[in-house]
């Protein structure tokens, strides 16, 4: 089999020598029918046949602790999500051109979770569509075209979203209206200075746009900066940059696809950790626990003129079945107090990883918030030279021990731990025990 170029961290390289015969057959069938843009994880891909809570199970019954998938936010195969979706699917499933109570009920409930200026919502089916729409709104509102994003960002796969997603690889073109800025590097920068340094880079990016004859429409930032290596703390890290953007007449777009719905353990949204109020917020995958639904939430000022002047309709966006799934997600987060669970479990996991790091100097920095944790690996603690080979090896050895995580960061040397929200301290201890063994 031909080895595929590695444009995704921790991708399967096509070597089937370690795969069981049935997985070899499945892999070859997959390659024959799926385009090569698809990627599998791990040296030995996992083939789950069912899932429950924070666990995946393969055909032989082996279980894997899922410490990676944020899409099933309230857990795989959640019974409450299943009940509400099944009931709605058996009743009616249409679109938002009819007067449907459930989408209004959900919208009121969702918007109550945002600060007061964010009072309107537009639904899409995917986060990529929501990012695309947010860019259109920002450009129409400001009359400008320029966009700033971080240098290893991922925001989606539509043409417009891919142009602001440098993490898609070296052959993915960045748009001519886009300027990239280096994200904060909390392993190598003084956290007390990182926010102001980032703001200076944003100011330089605005000047670069001006040199190209472009004004600033917006800056879009994933509030946890996941693809940039998980750079979420200290509190207020992004606030100085947001001020620079606003002073230049641009809108701040908070990409909450990964950080939203309580994942960071302090409130519902990641942008609140940065002490800022965005003009537009993008929601995505976890919103429906895997059922396609996403949204743009924004201020009246940002959304009204676009909504009056330009037709926007998405046939399946906000359909009653997807709204049922989204309603169930809010129900479970509130009923099971999953935001506080994210806080407590995240603190427990951070403390455990820091204890492990004391005995392994190559684990140079442990950081994160709630159930979004990173551990950065380097070749030596003095030079802080990234060590992607070690990070990849750890991920694959954990997979062999039944624990699933991935890697992140521009150098792919950062372990990314991002489990479903029901992940509790006993699950964290399971992960920590496996990490201890692997590093030993």
UniProtKB/TrEMBL annotation:
Keyword set includes Phosphoprotein:
no
Under InterPro entries, the record lists: Aminotrans_3, Aminotrans_3_PPA_site, PyrdxlP-dep_Trfase, PyrdxlP-dep_Trfase_major, PyrdxlP-dep_Trfase_small
Q: Which UniProt keywords apply?
A: Aminotransferase, Pyridoxal phosphate, Transferase
A GO molecular-function annotation: transaminase activity
Check the record and name the Pfam families matching this protein. Answer: Aminotran_3
Recorded superkingdom = Bacteria
Q: Which family does it belong to?
A: Belongs to the class-III pyridoxal-phosphate-dependent aminotransferase family.
Protein name per its UniProtKB record = Aminotransferase
